[in-house]
Amino acid sequence: MFDDSDPRKALTSTSKERSFSGPFCGPEVGNFSQEPPQQVGDGWQAWMMRCTNLVVRLVRLKGTATFARAGQLDEYMVFSTDADVRFDIETTAGTVSDHPGNHLFVVPPGDSSVTVRGSGQVSFLYTTRSADLVAQCANPEIPANPNIPPFQQWPDPVGGFRLRAYDLDVPEQDGRFGRIFRCTTIMVNVLPRFTAPRDASKVSPHYHASFEQVSLTLEGDFEHFLRWPWTSDMVEWLPDRHVRCASPSVTVLPPPAIHTTLWTSEATQIVDIFSPPRMDFSTKDGWVLNAEDYPLARTEIE
């Protein structure tokens, strides 16, 4: 159901016919611009929200903030699309000092400290294995989605775990979808910054059979549309949903809901996040920009 101009039209997994059984889960929605933050410091505010496998922390910064992890179980990601943000990151497997923004960092397990300085927004992504972070979320308890299998971490990175930095200043390329990076636990697609509203005649309704899509909006106004399958048991039917959100916000699009998104303002920035990484994106040649650092999973994850 993709428009002909959408690179995802070539993904074979989206064309499979499937039947589903309920009960189904609705979206988790965080309209951060309209809701109180979960954390507040001198010159910064942070909103935290979870889905099945992922915790998102969105920091609005005008000053300096430090976020430390002790004995972190697995890799996590930190990124900012704002060039004016600076990073100081210390880990047991590498450090960076006064590093410019518009980068994505993969932070290794163990002890780490991330200090961010300047003005802008910074996103932190962790798995829900970090129970202390789950407890801080606006939605610490969510319904279990029977369509999502147990979490499986992907293979260890080439050369072992260490601090890695990836430049987000990547030119667009015909046939490639966004700017995709993965680690052992998470995949991020930093979509290009759009400068006009989306053409409503070229939307992309589709569904995922067994994983959530976390849509993090950093700039602009968005509308998400969701529709669930009908089963033989009408008690399981859910009404269509139309979610309107300003930025910043998070909307969790659950399987197996058919979904598509409109951006309705002139300047917009959206990031799609998956945990664990998507196999279909990972097997498209050239789509994952750091694929040489992270081997494919040994068994297919849909």
Short description:
The chain is mainly beta. It has helices spanning 131-136, 279-282; strands at 28-30, 39-41, 44-50, 54-72, 76-80, 86-91, 94-100, 103-107, 110-127, 164-167, 180-182, 187-190, 213-219, 222-227, 241-245, 249-253, 258-263, 269-274.
Can you walk through the features of this model?
This protein has 302 residues and is mainly β. The protein has one domain (7-293): Jelly Rolls, CATH 2.60.120. The protein is 3% helix and 39% strand. Strands 2, 3, 4, 5, 6, 7, 8, 9 and 10 form a nine-stranded antiparallel beta sheet that branches. A six-stranded antiparallel beta sheet has the order 1-16-13-18-12-11, with no helix packed on it. Strands 15-14-17 form a three-stranded antiparallel beta sheet, with no helix packed on it. The model has no long low-confidence stretch (mean pLDDT 94).
Radius of gyration over alpha carbons?
19 Å
Query: Quick one: CATH class?
Result: Mainly Beta
Helix content: under 10%
Total domain count: 1
**SS elements, strand count:** 18
| Number of continuous helical runs | 2
The shape is: globular
Largest sheet: 9 strands, antiparallel
Indicate the CATH architecture. Sandwich
Please state roughly what percent of the residues sit in beta strands, choosing from under 5%, 5-15%, 15-25%, 25-35%, 35-45% or over 45%.
35-45%
- CATH homologous superfamily label: Jelly Rolls
Uncertain segments of ≥5 residues (pLDDT<50)?
A: none
Structural class: mainly beta
Q: How far apart are the first and last residues' alpha carbons, in Å?
A: 18 Å
Order of helices and strands: EEEEEEEEEHEEEEEEEEEH
Mean pLDDT, nearest integer?
94
CATH T-level topology: Jelly Rolls
